[in-house]
Design a protein that fits this description.
The protein has 306 residues and is α+β, with helices and mostly antiparallel strands. It has 2 domains: 155 residues, Acetylcholine Binding Protein, Chain: A (Distorted Sandwich), CATH 2.70.170.10; 120 residues, Neurotransmitter-gated ion-channel transmembrane domain (Methane Monooxygenase Hydroxylase, Chain G, domain 1, Up-down Bundle). Helix content is 42%, strand content 30%. The chain is built from 6 helices and 10 strands, in the order αββαββββββββαααα. Strands 1, 2, 4, 5, 7 and 8 form a 6-stranded mixed beta sheet that branches. Strands 3-6-10-9 form a 4-stranded antiparallel beta sheet, with no helix packed on it. Helix 4 runs antiparallel to helix 5. The N terminus is likely disordered.
């Protein structure tokens, strides 16, 4: 009888201790430090909203709180790398490192295209342990290799953040490594703004053509309009179809307004010349040139405000 009472007491004491340990774990979840050394950004495909990265990934942990096998049960949220090689695994020292290469995806914002900036992210969570049991922390030694580069882009730095993501009633700690890319301003201007500026300027030379030569005026306006349209399509071919206007779209809308103004003035001048009102056509051409300057300034101000 005494032995039975002792066994019951031991069982109840053990259950109470287990409950306390669980409660303590809930209040003090295990912390694992995550770090990344970005080796290179191999490719950025804007049209597919994807990018290929090459980097080292490591975890630092307390082996008395969590096993190396459990730490290794992580997953990338925004990609499925094709190559993950173990570089070092030391449970005694609480260290696990991988070399990772593969494709990641991100919904890019093209509102400021072609002068936009983009954020490439590496996002990972633990597969099984939620935020009550495991908290990820950024390792301060994370960095970007000085030889890393992206063709056509400037790397403007990086940032490490920890967020929480909910799946129903469960919330998981998520590590996010963000790489900031920006287009070189001069390169973007030469490739995107300078060509359409030259095309538009050529079309406006019609105002310096005699009103009597209205056929040449209209021909020049139509030809340059077709060139501008082709340039617009080529400019947008490098990005996916989006449901909003980019800076390039708004810029081209302003160009189309100028072309419409130019062709409308040329057609009206043609009607005046046909009606033998050559002097009136010349005066209208002079007024149209003055109004053109005001129109261009207005369009520039609208672009600046928006």
């Amino acid at each position: 009888m005494a032995l039975a009472i002792m066994l019951i007491f031991v069982f109840m004491f053990g259950f109470a201790m287990l409950h306390c340990v669980k409660a303590e774990n809930l209040e003090n979840p295990t912390r694992v430090y995550v770090g990344i050394w970005l080796v290179n950004v191999e490719k950025v495909d804007l049209s597919a909203s994807s990018y290929r990265l090459d980097f080292y990934l490591w975890f630092k942990f307390n082996s008395s709180e969590i096993s190396l096998e459990n730490v290794a049960k992580f997953e990338f949220v925004n990609g499925a790398p094709t190559k993950i090689d173990t570089v070092e695994a030391d449970e005694e020292d609480g260290y696990l490192e991988y070399r990772v290469r593969g494709e990641f995806i991100k919904t890019f914002d093209f509102t400021r295209y072609p002068f936009e900036t983009h954020t490439l992210t590496i996002e990972l969570e633990h597969k099984n342990l939620n935020a009550s049991n495991l908290i990820l922390e950024p390792d301060s030694t994370s960095t970007i290799d000085e030889t890393a580069n992206v063709a056509g882009w400037d790397i403007a730095g990086f940032e490490q953040t920890i967020t929480e993501h909910a799946y129903g009633n469960d919330t998981y700690s998520r590590f996010v490594f963000s790489i900031y890319l920006k287009r070189p301003t001069l390169s973007a201007f030469v490739k995107s703004v300078l060509p359409i500026t030259a095309i538009t300027t050529i079309s406006l030379l019609t105002f310096f053509i005699s009103p009597q030569n209205f056929s040449q005026r209209i021909s020049l306006g139509v030809t340059t309009l077709m060139s501008a349209t082709a340039f617009h399509l080529a400019l947008l071919s490098g990005i996916p179809a989006v449901g909003y206007l980019t800076l390039a779209d708004r810029m081209m809308l302003s160009v189309y307004v100028i072309f419409l103004y130019n062709l409308s003035a040329s057609v009206y001048i043609m009607k005046l010349v046909d009606a033998k009102k050559t002097e009136e056509a010349q005066k209208f051409n002079t007024k149209a040139m003055k109004l053109l300057a005001l129109l261009i300034i207005t369009l520039i101000l609208i672009q600046t405000i928006t």
